[in-house]
Structures are given as C-alpha cells and as structure tokens.
Give the backbone structure.
Amino acid sequence: MNRDFKINGLTILYFAIAFILLMAEYWKSTSLLSVFKPLLIPSLMMLYLVTSKNKCYWYVAALFFAFCSNVFLLFIDNPKLLFYGIMAFLFYRIASIITIVKKGDEIVLLPLVLATVPFLFIFSYLIYVMVNPSNPNFYPTIINDIIISIFSGLGLSNYVMNDNKQNSWLIISTLLFTFLVILFMVENFYIPNEVFKPLSAVVFSLAHYAFYLFVIESENHTTIDLP
C-alpha cells in the first residue's frame, strides 16, 4: 500500500467519521457519539503521522489532549468530567500554541499583542454575561479564554504579517476554533439549543483539519528552505 493511497484513505476516513458525528448530533444518537467521537482525533493523528516527513511531536501531544477532551466532554452533564474536559482542552491549546511557535513564522510581539486584544475583549464580555462566578468552571473558563485569545492572536498576526498558504490555513483554523469556543460557551452557560451541537461538530472537524494543513504546509515550507 503506497503512501498516497494511505493518505487519501485516512482523509476519507476522517471526514466519514466527521459526517457520522454530524448525523449523530442531529439525531441525538448517544450510542453513535460514544463510538465515533473518540475516533475522530486518532484518525487525524494517523493521517498526520503518515503524511508528515518532519514530525512535530508538540502537535502529536496537542492531538492527544484533544482526544482526552473529546472523551470527557461526552459526559458534559457531569460537572466534574466537564471540568476535566475543559482542562484537557487547556493543555491541548497550550500544545497548539507551542506548535505554532515551532512551525510558524517568527513571533513579533507588538502585532501579536494588537491581534490578541480584540479576542480578549470578546471573551471577557462573554464570560461577564454568561458565566456565574460561583460556577466551578468559572476560573478554568477564564484561563481557557486567555489561551484561546493568544492562539487566535497568533493566527491573525501571522496572517497579517505574512499572507502565505500556511498562514491562510492557520487563520482559518484559529477563527473556526474561536467560533467553536463561543458556541460552547453559549450552549453550556447561556442558551442551550439543539442546533448548536450539529454546528459544533462541523466547525470542530473543519478547524482541526485546517490546523493539520497548517502544520503540513509549514513542514513542507521548512523542508524546501533547508540548505
């Protein structure tokens, strides 16, 4: 079995699982979600390990924590497991930021700060209107939102400073993840709505795939630039 065949097969597998999850959320099928939701990130990890010629193990670590978060968030009605899910997501986001630092363009502090501030304002306002300080997830949510703001700021600043293919995938991914966090906060802390879960499944799958493409593009770019 050649490498291109494996890559195509794993890509189809990833989107097939994503489609099943979309249908499972729409049908509210807990059995399908329990089986297929934990499989989405491992399928992307396999795709990355087969595709990459210059592997970034921070990205592999990020995918591991994303997998843990996915599993814990299956039990979202359990406050303790929801907390674990939020913490796993925090570690996932930190590993993702390190991946951007390792694989992306050189970080310039002033553009990063300017790009991060608007996201901080957005998430600060959402926390203020949605999350009660007595909620046990209040402080983890604040930490997560600071981290996602930095993550989104990195994507925006890199794209503004250098509009190339890898940064295009990065900004797409960061904006999708920002939207996903907003959906998560609205659904869990403000107004539960049936439409949010299928929409979140689509955004989640596309955001992860876009970030995977950023990592692959950055590795290809690094490989070309090496003497």
